[in-house]
Amino acid sequence: MSCDMKFDYQEALKRQNSNESDIFELREKIRKHSHVPTKLSNKKLLCFLHACNGVDDAAKVISTYYEVRQACPAVFSNRDPLSNEVQQCLENQYYFHMPNTPSGYSVIYHCLSNNKASNYIFDEACKTFFMTLDSLLCTQGPSNGLIIVFDMKNVGYRHLLRPTIDGLRTFFHYLQDALPARLESMHIMNCGPVFNLVLAMIKPFMRSEIIQKMHLHPCGIDYQKFHKEHIPSSCLPSDFEGQLDSIIELHKNHCAMLARLREYFIADEKEANENKSI
Q: What is the pTM of this model?
């Protein structure tokens, strides 16, 4: 099975104004980390290099990335898009990424598709969310930054009982310390009273710089203002008065994409555990 990412490497190098000599230097630096796979592709190294502040920082993030993936099987194992667990998430939640903004930022969307708390399995939801991010990187390569849109629609008080402390710690550790993308902002849509409790629950795991990147938007916002100040309509679904298809259609297309990338995900998981300590 092939673990090759699908984007055009030479185009991405040029687009992101990256130097191939830095890729070579990064490859040399990660050799000292015994838990890091030995044959990472130049494409994957480019994603980390562009997400970080130089080669040394990229080597540190790569090391953390594989430490987390190898230590947290609940989130990073069995990443088969056609598995029952991932399919259960896709049947009860929406995930997809949208076209890059004119400023070159990638955009990812996540929302519950129904309000039944028992359908929400936190670790599997984290797994599927990070697979959505990986599908973005696999197909589009590095970007100028990542915008995450979390939609609070259908989130109720019973959902607060679903996450575990370990699950929350893993999610934010990976998001803040191991992400092969530069986090630009997070937009929390349709915020209601329940989000105050959500924030109280997750805030201990978030650094101040991440909290500062968070933008809260209540129900019934002025979408024309939102398009102008945050994300243009060309990068949003029709549900947010955007120019794209509906959330349902975008999610459906994303499910088909994940299925097409099944071989990649299986090979990527095998590679990630290549040098895992027993």
A: 0.96
